[in-house]
Specification:
Layout (H helix, E strand, L loop, with lengths): L4 H8 L2 E4 L1 H15 L8 E8 L3 E10 L1 E3 L7 E3 L1 H14 L4 E7 L8 H8 L7 E5 L10 E9 L8 E7 L1 E3 L3 H14 L6 H31 L7 H12 L7 H60 L6 E2 L2 E2 L13
Parallel strand pairs: 1-3, 1-10, 6-7
Antiparallel strand pairs: 2-3, 2-6, 4-5, 7-8, 8-9, 11-12
Length: about 325
């Protein structure tokens, strides 16, 4: 059925909320599948609540899925498995419903539209969430889409496509505690708090850079006339720019410089302290090794002296000691 302009506008404002448990389940599903094939994408069902204005994705489960990499139109999805798993999940939590499906893309495939039509047998309005599980991903790793059938103004045949909707990562209090413990456990034991903070700030700056590049490309596209002006986006950009501090003010610039110098002083002192501790540990290690070598040398010399003082035993022939030869009597026969 074709989607009207009002329905498309309503779908565009729908917010898809993904919980951390879903991301962990998808990452685990992909890790187990990557052991067999690294380029293979995985697919599963999303569970939660669909209120119309928002979709709350709180749980998920994996689904057996196979596709031909050379022919995207050839794929297999186990329907019976979905019905069986849904029956078991419904007994555990009756509030959760099937709200959509996910795959690890990381981009759209030609078969996504056909798979989405298949899921309409179970879900009246399925949402498709693409989860980017790559390690170098910066920012939110989810992209949510709804399938729509656009009506063209020239009266030609309608076209099925996907409408991108905003998505966010939110967690309840219990989930936040679990995620914090998990992140604390997976951090490398040799990393310090300072290096961890610097790594997190670096990742945040990379995310900010990617967003700034997207804004730059969009403004260039609008300025060149390739895209129409979206006043809502312009208003949001203006609000963001209004939050920036006025760096032309001398007092604010001096305050920023003082704060930066204080932070760099702490980093400098920390580096000096780490270097001194490393040198101290090196000296202690050298001293310990020297003492051990000296003790080994003394023990070796004492062992040599002990062997030198001990008389050598007589040779044994046939398991018996040979008797000492009698002293030669030089006066014999005199």
């Amino acid at each position: 059925m074709p989607t009207t302009s009002s329905e498309i506008a309503a779908l565009a404002t729908t917010n898809v909320v993904v919980h951390p448990l879903v991301l962990l389940s998808v990452a685990d599903h992909h890790a187990r599948a990557a052991a067999r094939s690294s380029n293979k994408r995985v697919l599963g069902i999303l569970l939660g609540q669909d209120t119309g204005k928002s979709v709350n994705v709180a749980n998920s489960f994996a689904v057996p899925f196979e596709e031909d990499e050379k022919d995207p139109k050839t794929w297999f999805l186990d329907h019976d498995y979905i019905e069986g798993m849904w029956g078991m999940f419904k007994k555990v939590n009756a509030r959760e419903r099937m709200v959509g499906w996910y795959h690890t893309g990381p981009k759209m495939r030609a078969s996504d539209q056909e798979i989405n039509e298949l899921f309409k047998r179970f879900i009246p309005r399925p949402v498709m969430v693409i989860v980017d599980v790559r390690e170098n991903t910066v920012g939110i790793p989810t992209d949510a889409y709804f399938a729509v059938e656009e009506i063209k103004d020239d009266g030609t045949e309608t076209q099925k496509t996907f409408l991108h909707v905003p998505s966010s990562i939110e967690a309840e209090e219990a989930e936040e505690i679990g995620v914090e413990h998990l992140l604390r456990d997976i951090k490398h034991s040799t990393t310090t708090t300072l290096s961890t903070r610097v790594s997190e700030q670096l990742a945040s700056l990379r995310g900010l850079q990617s967003r700034m590049l997207e804004i730059r490309d969009y403004l260039r596209t609008v300025a060149s006339g390739e895209a129409p002006v979206n006043h809502q986006i312009v208003y949001h950009l203006q609000d963001a720019l209004n939050l920036l501090p006025d760096l032309d003010d001398v007092q604010k610039t001096k305050a920023f410089t003082t704060n930066t110098n204080d932070q760099l002083l702490v980093v400098y002192l920390s580096s000096l302290l780490r270097a001194v501790l490393a040198l101290h540990a090196l000296v202690d290690n050298k001293e310990t090794i020297g003492k051990a070598e000296l003790e080994e040398r003394k023990e070796g010399e004492e062992e040599k002296d002990r062997k030198a003082k001990t008389p050598a035993p007589n040779r044994v022939a046939g398991g018996k000691e040979e008797p000492e030869a009698p002293a030669k009597d030089d006066d014999k026969g005199l």
